[in-house]
Every structure is written in structure tokens, then in C-alpha cells.
Amino acid sequence: MIDRVVEMAFRDKKFLGHFDLESTELLIRTSMQGVGAVFLEKLLNSDEGRYQGKTTGKFKEYRNKTLQTVLGKIVVKLQTA
Prior knowledge:
two-stranded antiparallel sheet
């Protein structure tokens, strides 16, 4: 990933004659948000879907939940029984 950012930055410099700071910054931010989303998803799924809170109402089924976070979409996997 780092190699790709460096490659794109130098490619911009070659064509524009200077570094395009805005596009390089956007690429770095987007890449880091993707890394953060993967990390957060792995962290939230580290308990293998075992719910540890109280339940209210009637149990229907276990379902995975897709969440939109500031880092990106993640899937919280729930135990399949």
C-alpha cells in the first residue's frame, strides 16, 4: 500500500512538475480508513459472536450486522448457535 502511494505521488510529480499534495493526502487518508475499518471489524468479531448482554423480547435468530462507521462499512458476525 505504501509503495502504491509513493508511486502515485511521483507519477504526479513527473506529469505535473510538482507533487499534488491534495490527491496524495486523499489517497493516504482513504487507505488508512480502509486499514482502520479492517482492524475495527476484526476487533469487534474477536469474541466469535458471543453476545454478552441482556436480551429482551423473544429470540428469533442470529444475524450478522452491517454497520457504517466513519472508517467504512464493517460486518459484525454473530454466533450461529
